[in-house]
Specification:
Length: about 190
């Protein structure tokens, strides 16, 4: 359904636009649906999830719990759904930000443990929006916090085949899209 380059561009643009329209920091996470509109555009809607959920544990864990709930409760598919997304804030690291950041990155790449990004000097606060479309293609939009409290313009990456991100959030989004998308009608075979 979303295999066209045009649809991929629309999803990527809508993800970046959503981050660029944020004006506050320290907002709670949100789960979003991207829906096809009659005019060939996309609309983005927050999916119903109480804000208190995010106070019960780490955002990635709670997103996974929500995805499991959706799968187990066999919720109805959402017509016109083309992607699901998760928006939150996080801390990113760049190796040249500080010696501690460089060491944390090196240890993680080697499979070792490292402090949380929030505890490392030189961290960069970011708004992040991770999405997956009905074809399983992943998108990642980020906007870094600037010194004046505003955000840099959002940048979006569309992951090509074989480059899918890993972790709790992409895995939960994969389960959500599988549960909420309309399934193709069974094909008829003639005898």
């Amino acid at each position: 359904m979303t295999d066209s380059t045009d649809m991929q561009s629309k999803i990527a643009a809508k993800c970046a636009e959503h981050l660029d329209r944020r004006t506050e920091w320290d907002e709670p996470p949100e789960v979003l649906g991207l829906f096809a509109e009659d005019d060939q555009g996309l609309r983005l809607e927050r999916l119903p999830l109480p804000l208190e959920v995010w106070e019960m544990g780490p955002a990635g864990v709670m997103l996974g719990a929500y995805a499991q709930f959706v799968v187990e409760s066999e919720m109805e598919a959402l017509p016109d759904l083309v992607a699901v997304a998760f928006r939150c804030e996080a801390f990113a690291l760049q190796s040249d930000a500080s010696p501690q950041a460089e060491e944390a990155i090196r240890r993680r790449m080697a499979g070792g443990s490292a402090p949380r990004n929030a505890d490392i000097p030189g961290r960069i606060e970011q708004r992040m929006l991770s999405a997956v479309d009905t074809d399983g293609r992943h998108y990642m939009s980020t906007a870094s916090r600037l010194a004046d409290g505003s955000a840099a313009p959002a940048a979006t990456k569309v992951f090509t085949d074989g480059q899918d991100p890993t972790g709790r959030i992409p895995a939960a989004l994969d389960r959500l899209i599988a549960a909420l998308r309309l399934q193709p009608a069974p094909s008829r075979t003639s005898d």
